[in-house]
Amino acid sequence: xxxxxxxxxxxxxxxxxxIVLLAxxxxxxxxxxLVIVGGTTGILTAPPSLLYNSAxxxxxxxxxxxxxxxxxxxPRNINNLGSFTLTSQPQTFAGAFNLFAQIDEPGGxxxxxxxxxxxxxxxDGDGNLLIDIDNNPQAFAFSNPSGSGVFTLTVxxxxxxxxxxxxxxxxxxxxxxxxxxxxxxxxxxxxxxxRFTLVPTAAIPEPATxxxxxTGISGLAAGVRRRRAGGNKS
Length: 234
Description:
Layout lengths: L1 H30 L3 E11 L4 E4 L1 E6 L4 E4 L8 E2 L4 E4 L7 E12 L8 E10 L5 E5 L4 E7 L2 E9 L1 E5 L16 E5 L5 E4 L2 E5 L8 H27 L1
Parallel strand pairs: 3-5, 12-13
Antiparallel strand pairs: 1-3, 1-7, 2-6, 4-15, 6-14, 7-8, 8-9, 9-12, 10-11, 11-15
Helix pairs in contact: 1-2
């Protein structure tokens, strides 16, 4: 009987230790936010009425996301992806733009620390200016002594409007990933926005699930011990 009790206690202790370790790992995964430092530059091919100013990025994710939507503040933009300034309302317009996003921290970016986003610039049917940028997320994988992981950068379109759109107006490009700026006067400046997003790791069970699992393991181990003890008596 004494041996049976000792065996059950050992099984319970082992199960509790397993739960504690798994729960601790679960907590670390949930709290693992990322500090991201870097900046943007760009090459703009467009009429001289449009100018681009670069930006500096310095911040960390919250719940896995770092929103880059700070107001424009050229020439020292911070925590957006740069800004565009229109000096006058365009009557005709066609252009192209390449955005270069460089990440300095976290270190150890694999495959180079710069990603390029291409955009076309044009007027829609109502004379509004659309900077139609590639909205596909681009990934950064990193590995350094502090850890490893993957995060993505998504860039939004930028839309300059002039006055009140006509009834039934629809954009030339329909997208939810867009920053719209109305220009009542000039110069008119808008921020290029976007976001960094952590790519989640494999799911880890919730604490309640771990507790049920641990209780089941403990009960199963105790049952096995009882059966063995009963077999020894016979």
